Amino acid sequence: MAANTRDIRRRIKSVKNTSQITKAMQMVAAAKMRKAQNAALAGRSYADLLRTVLGSLSGLGEDEAHALLQTREVKKELVLVIATDKGLCGALNTNLFREVAKFDPAKTVFVVVGRKAMQYLTRAQRTVLADFNIKENFHFLEAKQVSKFCMDKFVAGEVDRVSVAFTDFVNTLTQVPSVRQLLPITSFDVADVLSSADKKIEAAHDATPYVFEPDANGVLEAVLPHYVHFQVYQMILDSRASEHSARMVAMKNATDNAKQLIKDLTLEYNKVRQAAITTEILEISTAQIALG
Predict the structure, then answer these.
(1) Are residues 244 and 255 part of one domain?
(2) Catalytic residues, which ones?
(3) Are 6 and 86 found together in one domain?
């Protein structure tokens, strides 16, 4: 009995130490989560504005003349995978990699952001062209390096389509693994992602003639690359917000489970201890009766 109670006490102590670690990680993730969520939500207004501008330019210029708008037969596709550098964030990466696994290995090459994505693609024996290390507090110029690499591959004709696999941030409890086409940009893509408010604004402005300086093609030439750069930047922001949200929830669940396990072990310890005391009392009573 003594050995049994000693083992239970050790388990209780071990679980308490683990719960302290998960509680600390939960608080750190919560602090990072608020900052990442604010950054992701703040960038969406600017992204919507860029889409509105592209929607206004659509059909006014010679769209087919721009390299980023040219549609080709897809013989080779590049997929940008945006994952996390660390684990302990629930099924976030697993759900994303399930979408990545659907691509044909023979026709797909990958560009990676996040150590976990690189580890997965290496195990899966997929072709990785580049691995970008984006730090925690990254800037637009760092994300621009990633999008520029993908854009150069598309413009050079080395790949016929560029897609992005990332985790779309919805709210603290909901993160959706998504795959979106980045290149070529099509008028359907631009119109499809407009919010209802943007569509109302577009409808109100349809009757208004626009004057572009120097011309529509010139504006399109300047806006399209920036649109691609900002799209990748926004997707990385969404992925980071999803990561910290998922980690905060996972660590909270781990802490709650540890507390419940401590309660169960404490109850078991008390039962074993009570049984040991009862046994000792019975032995003493039996000995006393035997002695007369």
Answers:
(1) no
(2) 89
(3) no
Identify whether the C-beta of residue 226 lies closer than 8 Å to the C-beta of residue 14: no
Residues 101 and 229 in one domain: yes
Domain enclosing residue 278, as ranges: 2-24+250-290
**CB under 8 Å to 193, separation ≥6 — which residues?**
51
Co-location of 194 and 258 in the same domain? no
* Structure token digits, residue 22: 């998960």
Taking residues 3-17, report their average pLDDT.
88
Handedness of CA 159, 150, 45, 63 (dihedral sign): negative
Q: 100, exposed or middle or buried, with CB in 10 Å at 0-12, 13-18, 19+?
A: buried
Instruction: Tell me how far CA of residue 281 lies from CA of 264, 270, 274, 284, 290, in angstroms.
Output: 26, 16, 11, 5, 14
Could you report the per-residue pLDDT of 55-72, keeping only the tens digit for each? 766 655 554 567 888 888
Query: Are residues 97 and 225 part of one domain?
Result: yes
Please state whether 114 falls in left (phi above 0), alpha (psi between -120 and 50) or beta: left
